[in-house]
Amino acid sequence: MNRLKIILFFLFSVNFSFSQSGEVKLLSSIYADSSKNKDAIAKGLSFSVAPLSFGVPAAILITGLIKKDSALIEKGIKASVSFALNAVVTTGMKYGFERSRPFSIYPNLFHAKSKAGDYSFPSGHTSFAFAAATSITLSFPKWYVAVPAYAWASCAAWSRMHLGVHYPTDVLMGAIVGTASSFLTFKLDKWLNKKKK
User: Total structural domains in the chain?
Assistant: First the structure.
């Protein structure tokens, strides 16, 4: 476990001072571009993650149950499983890496404009947003579903940096974990169904 932890941290977070200073500079530019309107938008985007992330699997599943549509029910179950997988992986990584928040390490540069938990890496809001975007896109593979879903997820990722609670690598890893959780769940289901036949 420690070896895996070291490898993942090396690959996906910032270990070298040059990279760290570059990441802090990037975060500073996102964070500093502030106004009351942008702060309000960022807070709204962050707040939207929980209801929409829970809502996507629930809406697909409930619609399938109401319409008695087995294909929709199956998509809702897969979206729910991907959400659960994402939660386990994200939480495990947070407590595995124990990366402190930007405002804890650099209190002279950042303060939290929003509530945040103990650990920073990866961004939970971002991972849930990208898990939801990927689930809905895989369930309904149309450009007019994918474009707004991923645009919203990307804006949610931006909001976490703008609010000073995550580094860029936190949101990058959150996007990777969220997307991978949904993608793997849907692909595994497809593989299992092929194996049954």
Answer: 1
Please work out, in degrees rounded to the nearest 5, the angle formed at the alpha carbon of residue 178 by the alpha carbons of 147 and 10.
120
- Domain for residue 60, yes or no? yes
Q: How far is CA 176 from CA 63, 77, 181, 195, in A?
A: 28, 21, 8, 27
Contact 154, 126 (CB under 8 A): no
Report the run of H or E that residue 197 belongs to, with start and end. Answer: none
Cα end-to-end span (Å), the chain: 37
Whether 76 maps to a domain, the answer reads yes
- The answer to whether residue 126 sits within a structural domain is yes
For residue 66, what are the β-bridge partners?
none
CATH number of the domain within which 63 lies: 1.10.606.20
Q: Can you tell me whether residue 119 is helix, strand or coil?
A: strand
pTM: 0.83
| 100 in any annotated domain | yes
Q: Which domain holds residue 74?
A: 34-196
- Name every residue whose Cβ is closer than 8 Å to that of residue 37 and which is 6 or more positions away in sequence: none
pLDDT band at 39 (very low <50, low <70, confident <90, very high): confident
pLDDT in tens, 2-27: 555 555 555 554 443 335 577 777 77
